[in-house]
Amino acid sequence: TESVTVTAETSLLKTESTEISQNVTLSQLNNLPILVVGATNSGFRDPFASTRLVPGVQYCNTPPACNAVTSLVINGTPANTYQTRLDGATMNPTSPRLLGAQMQAQPSVDAVEEVAIQTSNFAAEYGQAGGGLFNFTMKSGTNAFHGSAYDYFVNEALNAGQAFTNAGLTNGQKAGQLVRNRARRQDWGFTVGGPIVLPKLYDGHNKTFFFFGYEQFRETQINSTTPI
After folding, report:
1. DSSP 3-state percent helix, strand, coil across the chain (nearest 5)
2. In terms of C-beta density within 10 A (0-12 exposed, 13-18 middle, 19 or more buried), how is residue 77 classed?
3. Helix (H, G, I), strand (E, B) or coil at 124
4. Displacement of CA 32 from its chain's centroid (Å)
């Protein structure tokens, strides 16, 4: 008889390169509080929030601290001097990041498989990055059809009423009724992927796949302390 024994150990240090990096998986993104993006104060989910898991990174994307711009500093480098790539392709905005709010053109969180964050000593192929490099790897189709759907929503009916706003009731409001400022927000979407199959024409199993993701963000806010 013969036997084969395979053993493997995780290296404490990277010996093949000098880069300092960290990968953030989809399950980690799903467990992070990643609402609210930059000066826009929008409520769609922000995959860049994964940077908060990485040592040496300071990320500010929530008002009032970042009312002017979204700020990301990596290991003390100038703010927002990083580069982002989507499956290896550069996806930086055309306008300078230092001059306005960012994160408005970003991949949907549910379509992201993994985020690789390199903060120092990365290879020469990433030389365009000054402060760090973010490489988003998107999901892909498989031999089995799969998908997901989601809806993150906010509605004032679920909020507590504002105190001291029940004077001067009009329009049939009941005594003691408190004003709830209108705040309605929805971030919804879906993903679907699988093999490309054309009955009696083409079978894409193990060869050709597709993946599609869609996300829409809608928000309505009306602030008033006077009952109407």
Report:
1. 10, 35, 50
2. middle
3. helix
4. 10
Distances (CA, A) of 63 to 22, 41, 67, 79: 27, 7, 5, 17
Q: Are strands 132-138 and 82-86 parallel, antiparallel or unpaired?
A: parallel
Residue with tokens 């009724």: 177
What is the Cα–Cα distance from 123 to 87, expressed in whole angstroms?
17
Distance of CA 128 to the CA centre of its chain: 23
Average pLDDT per run of 10 along the chain, which is 228 residues long?
Answer: 83 59 73 58 70 79 60 79 81 53 67 83 69 84 91 83 61 60 83 93 93 87 58
For residue 4, the number of C-alpha atoms closer than 13 Å in the C-beta half-sphere is: 1
3-state per-residue secondary structure call for 47-85 = HHHHHHHCCCEEEECCCCCCCCCCEEEECCCCCCCEEEE
Residue 99 carries which side chain, given as an amino acid letter?
A: L
Q: Give CA–CA dist 89/133, Å, rounded.
A: 12
What is the reported pLDDT for 39? 46
Cα–Cα separations (whole angstroms), residue 15 to 11, 18, 28, 123, 127: 8, 7, 27, 14, 21
> What is the distance in angstroms between the CA of the first residue and the CA of the last residue of the chain?
86
Euclidean distance between CA atoms 153 and 160, whole angstroms: 16
Q: How far apart are CA 9 and CA 11, in angstroms?
A: 6
pTM reported for the whole predicted model: 0.67
